[in-house]
């Protein structure tokens, strides 16, 4: 068998980079955000938090909160013509 090249953050050097103004400590507010079922959110990754990350294809997409799963949320997004469900930590979500 051939070994797989790269990991989960492959080809994300510019996509997951923070601006100079955004660097520093993360606000505790982002961790403790609460969302209701049906809220519209945008997936914007916080690069310094690795738990609850989504796949790089979904970066910048908007979706609807379906339900809560543990400390994360199930988000329904449209990928092409398909509806997909992504489990994301609230630190990576922005209310729309």
Task: Explain this structure.
This protein is 4% helix and 31% strand. It has one helix and five strands; from the N terminus they run H-E-E-E-E-E. It has one helix at 28-31; strands at 40-43, 62-69, 72-79, 82-88, 93-95. A five-stranded antiparallel β-sheet has the order 4-3-2-1-5, with no helix packed on it. A hairpin with a 2-residue loop joins strand 2 and strand 3. The protein is globular, with a radius of gyration of 14 Å. The N and C termini lie far apart (45 Å). The model has no long low-confidence stretch (mean pLDDT 94).
| Radius of gyration using CA atoms only | 14 Å
**In total, how many beta strands?**
5
Distance between the termini: 45 Å
Share of β-strand residues? 25-35%
* N to C succession of SSEs: HEEEEE
Question: What characteristics describe this protein?
Answer:
1 helix, 96 residues, 5 strands, 31% strand, globular, mainly beta, five-stranded antiparallel sheet, 4% helix
SSE blueprint and pairings:
Blueprint: H1 28-31, E1 40-43, E2 62-69, E3 72-79, E4 82-88, E5 93-95
Antiparallel strand pairs: 1-2, 1-5, 2-3, 3-4
In short:
This protein is mainly β and 96 residues long. It has 1 helix and 5 strands; from the N terminus they run αβββββ.
